[in-house]
Amino acid sequence: MTRWTTLVLFTLFSGCKSGDTENEYPMDFLGFRDATTTRALVVKAINRANEILQYKGKYVLIPSWIATGFVSDSTPGERITVYLLRPKGQFSTHEKEKTVLDSFSAVIKGTQPNPQAIDCPDTSECVHEMYKGSNIGKVVANILSLHATLQLAKIKVDRNYVALIDGDVQRFQLLFGKGLEGEQAVPFFEYFLAIILLHEVGHLDQSFQLDSLALPAEAKLIYNDYLSFLNDAKKEEARADAYASNAIVEVGGLDTATIALYIPFQGVLAYGYYLFDKSQGGICRHYFDPTEEHPNFEMRYRAMYLILQPDSRIVQNLMSNYLLNRRAIMNKTYTSENKECTILSR
Length: 346
Ligand SMILES: [Zn+2]
Prior knowledge:
The protein is α/β, with parallel strands linked by helices. It has one domain. It has helices spanning 39-53, 95-109, 136-148, 166-176, 188-204, 217-227, 232-251, 254-275, 280-287, 297-308, 313-330, 333-337, 339-342, and strands at residues 4-6, 32-34, 59-63, 78-87, 153-156, 161-165.
């Protein structure tokens, strides 16, 4: 039996194929083919991830299309092949994503918050009045539903490779990679992909355990409170996230600091979409988990940020306040009555 684990947002599914050989195309049986569109970006991300991984010398990532000579033979570490794939016959133009983002921008521009509700906290019922009557909830829900269908990366735990889905890399870049484009020299999306690759290596490296995280007492309490919300499948995602953050912390240095920037940045972007949807369903999407297998996207980034900067009171509060809100909202009457809330896992 083989087990596939998928990254940031994705489905867990099983697949077996008898007669696999070392050189056999890994995902052929799922109908995937080699893709090329984002290869240059992925190579940059692989190099970034390898800068972190070389600190321990345990793993090295190699793009499948540059299998020979990508790193020197003397480079230590187990080789993990990174494939860039697309479903057979699929060449998406991402028109749907562009339309959804355009309508989001248009609605945001044309909407003012209700002045009577502007200071309402997420845990108060008056928050639902903030954008009442506007289409904000709808356009945010559209963005998040696109997000929920992305399958950015997959790994096969017993075979040591990572597969990135080319079209979803592009879609993810459209939805979450644009924030500071043109204003900053830092290529955020490249860093973000590097973190995803490190997360996948975390799934492969089962020797890393959450107990071994060296956090100061206050941060440890908050982090353990985060874990208390998670079932076993979600804890495995948290463990792979922690592996990525922890690897960055262990290496230190300027390059890794810039990679680390992307983690809080992504959290802000995710929050940017959530921020505007204050309907009951919107609040539930902001605080509850999208599936039984994956913790809330924003919560994960706050947790990764906490591992990166465990001594910062601000970063500690970002996580602990979020968890406090989540707990309070779990106890609201509407979360057990609102249909959008009840389909989310709490
Ligand atoms: Zn994962």
